């Protein structure tokens, strides 16, 4: 039995910082609560350093009775989650500084980040569900952190959907355990092919229901626009980004490691869900006027493109690298767009951004890069991510899905341009000047960093892509 605690240093760093932060918050004065934010950033930096070192020395292993796998997918997932969490912490500074619950805010972010990391490396159904719970419960509290009407409604909807589909997921875990007489993925790989078809099919669909909730995919997407619109902008950025990373990497590992020998036609199911998510997300975004709701439906459509990699998890050799690179590209690009929304807290509609290019040219440039990046315009990273995913779909025999994805990408240009167009129109009047008042420096710095990362990742894609290639551990 490998009980190497050092292999779990990133997860341990976040959890330890959360516990220490919660204890310290009891005696720190309100004006010193920012120390917990620094502690959270230090934990993320520690996790990044540990992950980078582990990937550099090729330290791949399974730990604690093989329930957690440390491999390429885990390493890249950790880097993306921890980097994204740092950006969320940075864009939150102005919003929570001086708040009487500032320490609790950072503790909740650390806990939900640790749960996301647990999902990424989960090599066992029970480990997967434990990570799901740890990633979800703190997020419900974060959605209603502002304690206003919209935030309370968002938290309630988020919780009810999570509880329903979490219970469904737990039932699926029980069914798969009953069918395969095991919870470890390698053991299920051997036992599920001989198990009753109906039991395996229902169990898998139930587990996927919980993962679809985490990533905001159809038909478990109903919470996404309401939570994104009702929560504060940094938390909206979080819920549309980090849970996707954990849920998609966890889903890929489950399908690739435990399900390849079963008779259940899960590739077709995932292909249909991908098609539905990208199409519904794009169509619903067409005539949105709220910037946060537009980004919410954009996030649903992005899930559709990402699910294409899961549909061909066992059919294409490039599916894993396509998924991991796309996740990294989407994370920095989506967070860049939300950082601009955070920096302009009074600009809630598309019209409020009218004339931004003249009044705030740097922020307008970031928004241009990030929205065109979400569209998939070169040389941004999402362009290369989409190219990889579309290629994997064709390689896996789903040419029709790739064609539909291309059509959806072209269609999405309409609503991104609806936001970009007003940036370059007439100079703002007094009303627009008030709407374009900035929040502070931290959100702006986050926006510039994320946009730069999106461009850099796209330009350096040839060097980055090989880092996402490596077999999943069994």
Features:
474 residues; mainly alpha; two-stranded antiparallel ribbon; 2 strands
What does the main sheet amount to? 2 strands, antiparallel
Which range best describes the helical content: under 10%, 10-25%, 25-40%, 40-55%, 55-70% or over 70%?
over 70%
Strand tally: 2
CA(first)-CA(last) distance:
14 Å
The largest sheet has its strands arranged as 1-2
Order of helices and strands: HHEEHHHHHHHHHHHHHHHHHHHH
Number of helices: 22
| Sheet/helix structural class | mainly alpha
Radius of gyration: 21 Å
Low-confidence stretches: none
Strand content: under 5%
Shape: globular
> If you average the pLDDT, what whole number results?
94
Summarize the helices and strands and which ones pair or pack.
Elements: H1 9-24, H2 34-56, E1 61-63, E2 68-70, H3 72-91, H4 93-96, H5 102-121, H6 125-143, H7 149-180, H8 185-191, H9 197-215, H10 223-230, H11 233-239, H12 242-258, H13 266-285, H14 291-311, H15 319-343, H16 356-359, H17 361-375, H18 381-395, H19 399-423, H20 430-435, H21 441-459, H22 461-464
Antiparallel strand pairs: 1-2
């Amino acid at each position: 039995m490998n009980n190497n605690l050092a292999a779990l240093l990133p997860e341990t760093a976040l959890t330890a910082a959360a516990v220490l932060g919660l204890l310290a918050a009891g005696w720190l004065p309100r004006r010193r609560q920012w120390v917990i934010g620094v502690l959270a950033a230090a934990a993320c930096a520690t996790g990044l350093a540990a992950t980078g070192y582990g990937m550099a020395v090729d330290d791949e292993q399974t730990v604690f009775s093989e329930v957690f796998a440390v491999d390429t997918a885990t390493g890249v997932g950790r880097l993306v989650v921890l980097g994204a969490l740092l950006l969320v912490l940075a864009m939150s500074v102005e919003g929570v500084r001086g708040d009487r619950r500032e320490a609790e805010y950072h503790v909740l972010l650390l806990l939900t980040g640790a749960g996301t990391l647990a999902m990424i490396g989960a090599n066992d159904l029970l480990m997967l569900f434990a990570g799901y719970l740890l990633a979800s419960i703190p997020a419900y509290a974060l959605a209603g952190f502002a304690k206003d009407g919209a935030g309370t409604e968002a938290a309630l909807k988020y919780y009810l959907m999570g509880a329903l589909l979490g219970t469904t997921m737990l039932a699926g875990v029980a069914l798969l355990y009953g069918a395969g007489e095991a919870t470890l993925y390698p053991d299920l790989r051997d036992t599920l092919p001989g198990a009753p078809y109906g039991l395996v099919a229902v169990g898998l669909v139930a587990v996927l229901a919980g993962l679809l909730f985490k990533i905001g995919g159809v038909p478990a997407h109903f919470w996404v626009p309401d939570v994104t619109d009702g929560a504060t902008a940094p938390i909206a950025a979080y819920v549309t980004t980090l849970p996707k990373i954990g849920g998609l990497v966890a889903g890929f590992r489950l399908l690739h490691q435990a399900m390849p020998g079963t008779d259940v036609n899960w590739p077709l199911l995932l292909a249909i869900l991908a098609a539905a998510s990208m199409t519904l997300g794009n169509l619903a975004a067409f005539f949105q006027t709220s910037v946060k709701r537009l980004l919410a439906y954009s996030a649903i459509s992005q899930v559709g493109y990402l699910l294409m990699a899961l549909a061909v998890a066992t059919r294409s050799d490039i599916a894993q690298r396509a998924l991991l690179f796309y996740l990294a590209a989407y994370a920095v690009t989506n967070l860049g767009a939300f950082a601009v929304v955070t920096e302009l807290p009074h600009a809630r509609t598309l019209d409020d951004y009218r004339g931004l290019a003249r009044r705030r040219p740097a922020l307008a440039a970031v928004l241009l890069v990030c929205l065109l990046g979400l569209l998939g315009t070169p040389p941004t990273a999402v362009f290369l991510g989409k190219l990889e995913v579309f290629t994997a779909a064709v390689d896996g025999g789903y040419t029709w899905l790739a064609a539909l994805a291309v059509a959806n990408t072209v269609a999405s240009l309409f609503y991104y341009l609806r936001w970009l167009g007003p940036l370059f129109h007439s100079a703002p009047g007094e009303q627009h000047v008030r709407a374009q008042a900035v929040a502070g420096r931290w959100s702006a710095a986050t926006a510039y960093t994320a946009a730069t990362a999106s461009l850099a990742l796209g330009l350096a894609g040839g060097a980055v892509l090989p880092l996402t290639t490596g077999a999943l551990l069994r």
